[in-house]
UniProtKB/TrEMBL annotation:
Subcellular location: Cytoplasm; Nucleus
Nucleus listed as a keyword: yes
Domain of life of the source: Eukaryota
Keywords from the UniProt entry: Cytoplasm, Nucleus, Ribosome biogenesis
Role this protein plays: Required for the assembly of mature ribosomes and ribosome biogenesis. Together with EFL1, triggers the GTP-dependent release of EIF6 from 60S pre-ribosomes in the cytoplasm, thereby activating ribosomes for translation competence by allowing 80S ribosome assembly and facilitating EIF6 recycling to the nucleus, where it is required for 60S rRNA processing and nuclear export. Required for normal levels of protein synthesis. May play a role in cellular stress resistance. May play a role in cellular response to DNA damage. May play a role in cell proliferation.
GO biological process, one term: cytosolic ribosome assembly
Ranges where the Ribosome maturation protein SDO1/SBDS central domain occurs: 110-171
Protein name: Ribosome maturation protein SBDS
Source species of the chain: Papilio xuthus
Family annotation (PANTHER family): RIBOSOME MATURATION PROTEIN SBDS (PTHR10927:SF1)
Amino acid sequence: MSKIFTPTNQIRLTNVAIVRLKKGGKRYEIACYRNKVLSWRNKLEKDIDEVLQTHTVFTNVSKGQVAKKEDLVKIFGTDNQTEICKEILEKGELQVSDKERHSQIDSLFKDIATTVADKCVNPETKRPYPVSIIEKAMKDTHFSVNVNRSAKQQALDVIQMIKKEIPLERAQMRVRITLGGKDAKKVIEKAVKLATSVEEENWESGTANIICLIDPGSFRNLDDMIRSDTKGHGQFELLNLKEMVEGEQTL
């Protein structure tokens, strides 16, 4: 019975996502696991082994053709396969079929709309819009999905765009600040200046308990300020993201 030999410069891989980069007049490809490329680019996945099927640079993944070492050194300035893979992963183009691309775009479109609905409200009613209304506004403004950016990143762009179509504002964050000690009053005064409104303010045995609304953009500044001014002893807690109408319960 005859044997079939695979050339030593060929590697066979199946069910892969290919990322391709053209550089120095040549084409280079890497084989990745599906759904991991965007996670890596969005810094959600930090383990390169979870992204790459193999730490190998190809000239053609489908045919299993491996790039020559001398070409890699000439084009990339190194023969370190992992480092070259990272460059291709960062700068290359993810190859997908038309069917996959349409499915990916549709899914990302819905994710973006859902993110906007979660983070924004109608300023007149202080209630969130249904996702279907956000999707319609996105279509009316001819928003184009970028498959190389996360839903969260694109949601910020969408918010600015669809304000032309529907009344929209960021839902404020309801937060609780608990502080004690001799500097509590001073820190609370600084914190209140970053809030849009204070709902509750209670002092008991020298400890302040404040519930207030803040703009999402102030969250990090307020968190950093409380951490530094109290040397980590103050408590800063997010209660919910949406403004709630009177009588409505937080989920």
